Amino acid sequence: MLPGHQPGFELDRRLDADSVPLMWLGLCELRLMDDRRWPWLILVPQRPGIAEMHDLTPLDQAMLTFETNLVAQALKIETACTKINTGALGNVVRQLHVHVVARNIGDPGWPGPVWGYGVREPYRTEDRHAFADRMRSALATQT
Amino acid sequence: MLPGHQPGFELDRRLDADSVPLMWLGLCELRLMDDRRWPWLILVPQRPGIAEMHDLTPLDQAMLTFETNLVAQALKIETACTKINTGALGNVVRQLHVHVVARNIGDPGWPGPVWGYGVREPYRTEDRHAFADRMRSALATQT
């Protein structure tokens, strides 16, 4: 069993298909959305059966905030983006997951949201690995 | 000066135009988006010059999470909606604000995000007051 993995937790199939694992945080698995249009990370709390943030325990809510903001800060510094967009929607995938996306003036869909915009464009494998490595390093210096 | 209001804080003009004050929480002013297409609340931390959640102090980050989840839970219970959508984008309005929206299968734009979808449809005044009263009561029983 991987560290942080909770018995009974299974990653949603759609999340599994659209993103790749990047690293484990305390509560969440951090994943990289395989869409080269935007630098886009996803935090998935390893808790089974949770759809809404307010259904987490108070401690888990605090942990999720801490981890989300840590990731947001690292992503902002690493990409020098204009604005971080965070969101927890779950209209399509009900399993609780938090998006952290680096946005820049003039990027696809700007200034609108990324969710539901156009069609996902997977990275070339080496580019995805390079970005994942950059983010892992950026997060390692913060934690 | 209103309770919770911090010297130097001024509400962004666009937020002021699109939403109305609902109540004061500890850190945030809670506002009601004047758009009858979705039950939509906005939390605005009363801190000047903050654009990103991770630029708040750790204590303010924890407060914002607490208040956001309190509001989300009350909105979900009160509206019996399918899913809560939360988001902090700020691509148009840079002042930090957190959206909490009640979504239902088949509502305008479902399952896409509300941001940037179509044109805002203001409430009739009496309907807006009625919804604001309902939410104030729902929050009063939680706090």
UniProtKB/TrEMBL annotation, chains A, B:
SUPFAM superfamilies: HIT-like. Residues 41-110 form the HIT domain. One of its GO terms (molecular function) is hydrolase activity. Keywords: Hydrolase. This is Diadenosine tetraphosphate (Ap4A) hydrolase. It comes from Mesorhizobium australicum.
